[in-house]
Fold this sequence. Notes:
Order of helices and strands: EEHEHHEEEEHHHHH
CATH topology of the largest domain: Beta Polymerase, domain 2
CATH superfamily of the largest domain: CorA soluble domain-like
Strand order of the largest sheet: 2-1-3-7-6-5-4
Shape: rod-shaped
Largest sheet: 7 strands, mixed
Distance between the termini: 70 Å
Number of helices: 8
Helix content: 55-70%
Strand content: 5-15%
CATH class of the largest domain: Alpha Beta
Radius of gyration: 35 Å
Number of domains: 2
Oligomer: single chain
Amino acid sequence: MDHSDGLVNAYVLDxxxxxxxxxWNGVRAWKPGGGALWIHLQWDEKTANDWVRKESSxxxxxxxxxxxxxxxxxxxxxxDGMMVILRGVNMTPGAEPSDMVxxxxxxxxxxxxxxxxxxxxxxxxxxxxxxxxxxxxxxxEFLVMLAQHLTDRVLPVEDEIGEGLDDLEDALVADxxxxxxxxxxxxxxxxxxLRRHLSPQRDALLRxxxxxxxxxxxxxxxRIRETADRVFRIVExxxxxxxxxxxxxxxxxxxxxxxxxxxxxxxxIIATIILPLTFVTGLFGMNVGGxxxxxxxxxxxxxxxxxxxxxxxxxxxxxxxRWL
Length: 324
């Protein structure tokens, strides 16, 4: 869908779970008291940037924060509202889901402004619920639903990583060390990325839960706290998966080391058996006069038989000593 004008979607909430879709003219004509306004903008479009800075009546500090290049999950309270930045999985084709995208939110009693850099299915879930008449009734419920949908979208990624670790553990048991090495690094990168973004997200939700904004009801606060606890559980599970990945990596290194040591040990035994034989063959191979058996036709067979016998006796000796 073309969002070259910077407007992804905009709705006036009707207070009953539905909303009326607006274009830019409708957004500019909206007045407080006509229902809560939700406007969703494309972060990198000039029209959206100009509206946020010049027409939204936002504090310049808030506008700069909504439009900054890099963001981390956080919640900042101002006199007339709050800015909340949350993260969701990246569902852009070709992108890693763990490369999470930010959703920048300004919310007060009458208006919600959200900005995206890449598409987020969680935001689309809220828009779809409004179209179906089952969306948020007000600004507080919008925040609750968005936080819940963002968290729900992380769970399949978490499950996928867990299943990947299960497969790697099976491959490790089967001694498929090359397969483990190829697939382990991407999983470790995913867990690191999830941990980096979700840990501050829980702190942001707890800060949101603790604020005393009048447009947040007690029930909505409780749901935000429940979502924060779910995020914390996900963070704990990600930490567990990181530990599992580290254990798999250590076990793989141990097995590679054991395999290398076994190979070196076998080569050492072979070299030990061959060394005296090589000495004898080298001694008899000198191009000087006086070599015993030089004029005897069957001397070669006698020497070869002696060498084979010595080699077999050494192999038996190593076997009896449990060296071989």
